[in-house]
Amino acid sequence: KQTRREVFLSEMDQVVPWRALMNLIEPHYPKAGKGRKPYPLETMLRIHLMQNWFGFSDPAMEEALYEIAPVRQFARLSLTKQIPDETTILNFRHLLEAHDLAVKLLQRVNGHLCDKGLMLKRGTIVDATIISAPSSTKNGEGERDPEMHQTKKGNQWYFGMKAHIGVDAESGLVHTVTTTAANAADVTQVEDLLHGKETVVHADAGYTGADKRVTDKKIEWHIAEKRGKVKAMKPGRLKRAVEKLETLKARLRARVEHPFRVVKRQFGFVKVRFKGLAKNTAQVQTLFALANLWMARKQLLAMTGQLRPQYAK
Predict the structure, then answer these.
(1) Global pTM?
(2) C-alpha to C-alpha distance for 230 and 46, rounded to whole angstroms
(3) What is d(CA 289, CA 102) in angstroms, rounded to the nearest whole number?
(4) Of 238, 206, 204, which is closest to residue 222 (Cα–Cα)?
C-alpha cells in the first residue's frame, strides 16, 4: 500500500518542470572546485520543495531525510552516502533569496502551464489573505517584528502580513503574488496584481474604487457591493435583483479561494516562518507556484499519459 505522502511525491515528481527550474538556478549555484564538492542541484531543489510542501524547518528537514524513506528517495539520496545537513539546506534557501529567484520560479512554473494551455489570462480575480506572525515580545529584541502589523477583521484582531494574489479567472491558477503588512488595504495592491492583458477583473468589496487606481480604462470591473449598502436597500424586486447579482459575482470569485486553501491547508502555511517581509515573500511566492502545480496536476498527468498512482492497476 502506498501512503498518501508517497502518492503525493509521485504525482509532483511528474508535474514539476525540473529542467526549467534547474536552468534558472544553475548560473548561481556553486561549481565544484578545490573545496568540498557541492551536492547535485536537483537534490537541493527537491529538498527545498519538500520543505515548502511539508512545512519542515531546516533541522526537521535533515532529520526527515534520515528517517523517512520516501522523502529520502524523492531527493535522490541514500543512507550509504552523505546527506545534506541543516546548514547546507539553509544556504540553498539563502542562495535563492539573494538572487530573487522565488518570483522567477513562479514565472517559470506559469510559463510551463501556459505552454500546456492551462492559463488563458483573459480575466483576473484578485484577493488577499492574512498570514499570522508571532505577536509575542518574549525574544532577544523584546519587540514584535517591525515589518508586521495588526489589523481588525470583523470583531477579531490579527497580527502579521497579507498575501495578495491575482488569479486567472478561467483556470483558477495564480499568476501574480505580492505581500504587505496586514494593515495595508487590499485595494492598494490591485494594479500590481494585474498582468496587463486581462479584459475583466473580479474582486470583493475591499477593492471598491480599484478602477480609479488602474490606468487601463479598457478593463471591465466586477466589484462586489458593500454588504451594508445591500442590507440598507428597501425590500422589493430591486433588492432581490441586486442580491441575485451579488450571488453570481461571489460564485465567479470563488476560484480565488482555492489557492489559499492549498497553501494554508494542503501545505500547512498558516503562520510566517521568518522575520521580515522579504524572506516571507520569497516563501509565499514559492508556495503559490507549487500550489499551481498541485491544482493542475490532473491535467498535467493526463497530458503525459500517466495514471495517477492511487488508480494504477
Answers:
(1) 0.91
(2) 50
(3) 9
(4) 204
